[in-house]
Design goal:
The chain is α+β, with helices and mostly antiparallel strands. It has helices at about 15-25, 30-35, 40-60, 85-100, 105-115, 140-155, 170-175; strands spanning about 10, 65-70, 70-75, 125-130, 160-165, 180, 185, 190-195. It has a single domain (about 10-195), classed as 3-Layer(aba) Sandwich (Aminopeptidase), CATH 3.40.630. The longest helix is centred in the N-terminal third of the chain and has 21 residues, at about 40-60. The relative contact order is 0.17.
């Protein structure tokens, strides 16, 4: 007998401490994050706070955060609200400066390069998807994707993401995302793959 698929629920601000910890662990070996924050010590000291600020900013602009047990996290920006306002960016700035430190100019150039390739039509944007390493391989990532992908299909709206790991392309392809040409980050950074999903 196969185990039932895990059920996702919409997370609230009360979940953010656990979600930020899971995201910190999930992205500790991510190529883009390692390029931006080469020091493991700095990552461990600042990633939780940065992700908590990101979660709060996403909710303020009407985004949704889905989780399974706090171990898997999908951060979705609502259509036409994927870019933060100056006020929201100011709220993230202190934790970002602490995390990136001298690499802040590099991080800003990388973000600008990625944003230039962002589609301008209406879409749901998967800003972040991460699963705590201790809970990977159990279907949690798929579970937190499903609620918004089902809404995309029902409403006829595309979805978009950027994958920072080539090995994740097959996972996203199983959910209907198609990869575009990789974006090369300035300063010798790793590639990032834009991926788009048309509604089914």
């Amino acid at each position: 007998m196969t185990a039932p698929s895990p059920a996702a629920r919409m997370a609230t601000a009360r979940d953010d401490a656990a979600l930020a910890q899971s995201l910190s662990r999930a992205f500790a070996d991510d190529p883009v994050w390692r390029f931006l924050v080469p020091s493991p010590r700095r990552w461990e000291a600042g990633a939780d706070r940065f992700f908590r600020a990101e979660l709060a900013a996403l909710r303020r602009r009407g985004g949704e955060v889905w989780t399974v047990g706090g171990h898997a996290v999908a951060m979705w920006a609502a259509p036409d609200r994927w870019r933060g306002s100056p006020r929201e960016l100011a709220g993230i700035l202190p934790s970002g400066l602490r995390l990136f430190a001298r690499r802040t100019p590099v991080a800003l150039r990388a973000l600008s390069t990625i944003e230039r390739e962002h589609p301008r039509d209406e879409h749901w944007y998967l800003a972040v998807l991460g699963t705590d390493p201790d809970h990977q391989g159990n279907g949690l990532g798929s579970a937190v994707l499903q609620p918004v992908l089902e809404r995309c299909d029902a409403e006829g709206i595309p979805a978009f993401l950027e994958s920072s790991k080539e090995r994740n392309l097959a996972f996203y392809a199983r959910h209907g995302f198609v990869a575009g040409d990789p974006i090369e980050l300035p300063g010798g950074g790793p590639p990032v793959w834009p991926m788009r999903r048309e509604p089914r």
